[in-house]
Write a structure and sequence with these properties.
3-stranded antiparallel beta sheet, 3-stranded parallel beta sheet, 10 strands, 7 helices, about 280 residues, single chain, alpha/beta
Length: about 280
C-alpha cells in the first residue's frame, strides 16, 4: 500500500485514529461539499459488507464510479464475489493494475507468455505486444512487424475541458498516478501523465550459435522447458483387448501357464485367441 493514498469514511478514520496514531496516513473528506469530487481522487473502491454496502458506496460518486472490489462480510451477497479470507493476496493482485509487455520474438517465451501471449519462433521478425490484465476484452495480444515504432503514453484525466452532450466519443480512462517501466527487470523508470515511451527494434541483433538449427533448438527448448504438447497417458476404463497387456514372448508363457491350470473353457479360449493374434501357436 506504499505510495498510495487511502480514503475512508470520516467515522472510520476517527475509529482508526482512536486506536493508534499509526493510521495518520489514512485520509477522508471533511464535509459533504467534497463528495461530488470524490471521482477525481479515487481510482479503486473497496467495500466491506454486502450488496447494500456496494450500492451505498457507488451512490457517493456523482461522477464516474471507479472499479469496485467488494469483500463479502455477510451471509449472502450477489455483488460481493471476493472473500475476506486471503484479502491481502487478492488486493495485491488487483493493485498491480493493467500493463503492457513489449518484447522481441526471442522473448516471447518469457513474461509475455505468462501474460497470455503466444510463443513465436525467434527468427520471425516482429515485436510482440501483450497486455497485462487488461480491463477490456478488446485489448488482445498482437505481433507487429519489426520495422514499426510503438509509442506508449500515460494518459492524464482525459476529461475534456468543455464536454459536449452531443459528443459520442468515449473518454480516456483517467489516471492520477504514475506508471513505471522496466527493461528486462532493470533500469526502472517512472512515467508521469503525458509522458511517452517510444519502442523500436535495435539495429544490431544479438547473434547466437545454434546447437542443431534454430527450429530444432526452439522446439527442443519449449518441449523440455515448458513440456509443450505433452500429456499423461490415460488409462482405459474398460477391460483391455486380448493380448494388449502382453508382448509376444511373455504371451507364449502365459498361454502355457493357462493351459496347465484348471481354468474355465472361456478363459482358455481367450488365451488361444490372443495367441493366434500374435501368431504364437498354430491351429
Amino acid at each position: 500500500m506504499r505510495k498510495k493514498k487511502i480514503y475512508v469514511e470520516p467515522r472510520v478514520q476517527k475509529e482508526l485514529l482512536d486506536k493508534t496514531s499509526s493510521f495518520e496516513f489514512v485520509k477522508t473528506w471533511q464535509d459533504d461539499r467534497e463528495i461530488p469530487y470524490l471521482h477525481k481522487k479515487v481510482d479503486l473502491l473497496v467495500t466491506l459488507g454486502g450488496d447494500g454496502t456496494v450500492l451505498w458506496a457507488a451512490s457517493l460518486f456523482q461522477g464516474p464510479v471507479p472499479p469496485v472490489v467488494s469483500f463479502n462480510m455477510g451471509s449472502l451477497g450477489f455483488m460481493t464475489p471476493f472473500s475476506r479470507d486471503g484479502y491481502k493476496k487478492q488486493l495485491e493482485s488487483i493493485l498491480r493494475g493493467d500493463g503492457l509487455i513489449l518484447s522481441t520474438t526471442s522473448g516471447s517465451t518469457a513474461y509475455s507468455l505468462a501474460a497470455g501471449g503466444s510463443m513465436v519462433h525467434p527468427q520471425v521478425p516482429g515485436i510482440a505486444l501483450t497486455p497485462i490484465c487488461p480491463h477490456s476484452l478488446s485489448f488482445r495480444p498482437l505481433i507487429l512487424p519489426d520495422h514499426v515504432a510503438i509509442g506508449v503514453e500515460v494518459s492524464d484525466t482525459g476529461t475534456p475541458k468543455s464536454p459536449s452532450p452531443q459528443s459520442l466519443s468515449p473518454r480516456t480512462p483517467s489516471r492520477r498516478s504514475s506508471a513505471w517501466v522496466s527493461f528486462d527487470g532493470k533500469n526502472r523508470e517512472e512515467l508521469k501523465a503525458r509522458n511517452k515511451l517510444i519502442c523500436s527494434m535495435a539495429p544490431w541483433p544479438v547473434p547466437t550459435v545454434c546447437l542443431n538449427d534454430s527450429t530444432r533448438d526452439f522446439l527442443c527448448s519449449i518441449l523440455e522447458g515448458l513440456n509443450w504438447n505433452q500429456r499423461k497417458t490415460q488409462s482405459s476404463d474398460g477391460p483391455p483387448p486380448p493380448g494388449a497387456l502382453f508382448s509376444p514372448p511373455l504371451l507364449s508363457k502365459a498361454v502355457v501357464t493357462l493351459l496347465t491350470q484348471e481354468l474355465s473353457p472361456e478363459v482358455k479360449r481367450s488365451a488361444f485367441t490372443a495367441a493366434k493374434m500374435f501368431k504364437i501357436v498354430k491351429w
